[in-house]
Amino acid sequence: DEPSHETAKNILLEMGEFYQVQDDFLDCYGDPAATGKEGTDIEECKCTWLAVQALSRVTPEQREILKVNYGSHDPACVQRVKDLYGELNLEKLFRDYEDNSYQRLVGMINTGTGSLPKSVFLEFLNKIFKRMK
Fold first, then answer.
1. CA-CA distance, 25 to 54, in Å (whole number)?
2. Whether the predicted pLDDT of 114 surpasses 80
3. 3-state class of 33 per DSSP?
C-alpha cells in the first residue's frame, strides 16, 4: 500500500544517509584490518561528512590548512588534515551523530511502519549501528 511504501522510503533514506556518514568516518578512522581497505577519501579530495563538518567549524587559519593539504597524496598532508579533524573534535561529533541518528531511526520505526514488520527495519538498523567495517 502507498502509505507503507512512503514510510519505508523515509526510514530507508534516513538509514542510507546514516550508513554513508559511517562510511566516511570509517574511511578516516577505521582499522584497515577490519574495514578491508586503506582510507583514501582525504587524498581523493572527496566531499565527505567529515570534510563538510570541518569546513563549518574552522577558523580562517584552519581553512587554509585544509585548502593546502586536502586532496594531497603526501602522507604528511593527510596527517595534517587528520590532526585538524582531531582539533575540531570530529570523532566526538560523529559519535554524537551516530547515537542521535540511531535514536531518531528507532523513533521513526516505532512510530509506525504501516503494514511492514518493524522487526525488518530494526534488524537492518542494528546491523549497521556501531559497525566497524
1. 12
2. no
3. helix
